[in-house]
Write a structure and sequence with these properties.
With 191 residues, the chain is an alpha/beta fold. The chain has 7 helices and 9 strands. α5 packs antiparallel against α6. The mean pLDDT is 93.
Length: 191
């Protein structure tokens, strides 16, 4: 069986990354795309199951794995609230012939790309402008005005990382962005 490859998606919040990734995975089963299953130190929510949505670890177990260099990337989002990707899990999925998808923040994306080099394609989904991003976030009506301003400030910072990715897809028109992303992924998987 042919070993899988890695595809990393990063973007500022509101850029349409999750929409594009979900479309690729649902509408293009021939790509054999599977999410990397991450670890977290938070408790399962709702119907989440260990080994399905996440691997649930205690903060102590997480720290132990950090100390043993078992993560491709990890982040302590809040005190004792960790998220990370185990090298062993990625290898297991790649060896099963799965093309492993990472839907991560820009720093995580840059770090995973550094770790895997040419075995990974890193895709940065970019909003057409900060103004357009503001419209989208306001239109979502899920955040307070303060939270929107925080997201926009973070997005401005995250946009400075775009040139560290293999390819940038500007999501000005969703259908065009989907097709451009599909083209990039197909080209990479065909290599």
């Amino acid at each position: 069986m042919k070993k899988g490859k890695l595809i990393i998606f990063s973007a500022p919040s509101g850029s349409g990354k999750s929409t594009i990734v979900q479309w690729l995975m649902k509408e293009h089963p021939e790509l054999r795309l599977y999410f990397s299953i991450s670890c977290t130190s938070r408790a399962p929510r709702g119907t989440e199951q260990n080994g399905v949505e996440y691997f649930f670890l205690t903060p102590e177990e997480f720290r132990e794995k950090i100390a043993n260099h078992e993560f491709v990337e990890y982040e302590e989002v809040y005190e004792n609230r960790f998220y990370g990707t185990l090298k062993s899990q990625v290898e297991k999925q790649l060896n099963a012939g799965q093309n492993v998808v990472f839907d991560v923040d820009v720093k995580g994306g840059v770090n995973i790309k550094k770790f895997y080099g040419d075995d990974a394609l890193s895709v940065f989904i970019q909003p057409p402008s900060i103004e357009e991003l503001r419209k989208r976030l306001v239109g979502r009506a899920t955040d307070s005005p303060e939270a929107i301003e925080e997201r926009l400030a973070k997005a401005s910072y995250e946009l400075t990382f775009a040139n560290q990715f293999d390819t940038i897809v500007v999501n000005d028109d969703l259908e065009m962005a989907k097709n451009e992303t599909l083209h990039q992924v197909n080209a990479f998987l065909a290599e």
